[in-house]
Amino acid sequence: MAKNDAPAEKTSRLKQIRSAYQLTKKSDPRIGLVLAGIFLGVVAIFVVVGLIIGQPLVLIPLGVALGLLATTIIFGRRVEKAAYSQIEGQAGAAASALQTLRRGWNVTPAVAVTKNADIVHRVVGRPGIVLVGEGQASRVKNLLAAERKKHTRVAGGAPVIEIMAGQGEGEIDIRKLTKHVMKLPAALQPSEITDLLQRLKALDAVRPQVPMPKGPVPTSLKGARQAMKGR
Question: Which parts of this chain are annotated as the region Disordered (predicted)?
């Protein structure tokens, strides 16, 4: 079964990489030339050095390997930059960024939404409960404060942290949002997180279900990240 699954997994990965490339090319039309230039440049350096020292057969394969590595790294950065540029400023952009958090984080988008498209998302992990607001700052602060009170009642002493996503003063740019969350100091053990998630289920069960504001909430950021992880 594993052997049969391998070709399908490889095909899926190639599709993700192709999609990531097409996404990036929309905002970075020269991406193909840039990547080709980086690869050929690295290889050329090793070819020249190999010829000078008389060891081309040793250095050329090494140059190809390092050229591919350098190309992959630059491609990953360009893909991420293009993906962020597409979601920036859209309703749900913070949720799209937060959903790229790795294993060990529980992300619940839009635990609170207003008719003005102000949104609060929730992240649960070792730091405790992290409430992330996005929208018009003055309104979101009130929404965050209300959610903090609700979550504090069931937090059982776990920290409840508020973050405002955006580009204003005191706000965290969505490009830095996941790194900011991951750097928050740990306060809970895994068993405490499990217990906390159970208590939060009870809170979510009694709140009205409000859908995310309508509009293009892009998921390309997560797909782009997955494509580059597969490389």
Answer: 208-231
The residue to which tokens 């990240």 are assigned: 225
Spell out the per-residue pLDDT of the chain, length 231, in tens: 445 555 666 666 777 778 777 777 877 888 889 999 999 999 999 999 999 998 888 899 999 999 999 999 998 888 777 777 766 666 678 888 888 888 889 999 889 888 888 899 999 999 999 999 998 888 899 999 999 999 999 999 999 999 999 888 888 988 889 999 999 999 999 999 999 999 998 888 877 665 555 544 444 455 555 544 444
CA–CA dist 199, 183 (Å, integer): 25
Residue 69 pairs with which residues in a beta bridge?
none
Burial class (CB in 10 A: 0-12, 13-18, 19+), 161: middle
What does the alpha-carbon distance between residue 209 and residue 212 come to, in Å, rounded to a whole number? Answer: 10
Cross-strand partners of 201 = none
- Cα-based angle 168, 173, 176 (whole degrees, multiple of 5): 150
Sheet of strand 119-125, all strands in order from the earlier edge strand to the far edge: 106-113, 119-125, 128-134, 160-164
This prediction's pTM: 0.68
- Residue 133 pairs with which residues in a beta bridge? 120, 164
Residues whose CB falls within 8 Å of the CB of residue 26, separated by 6 or more in sequence, listed in order: 82
Q: Phi, psi (5° rounding) for residue 208?
A: -65, 140
Distance of CA 144 to the CA centre of its chain: 22
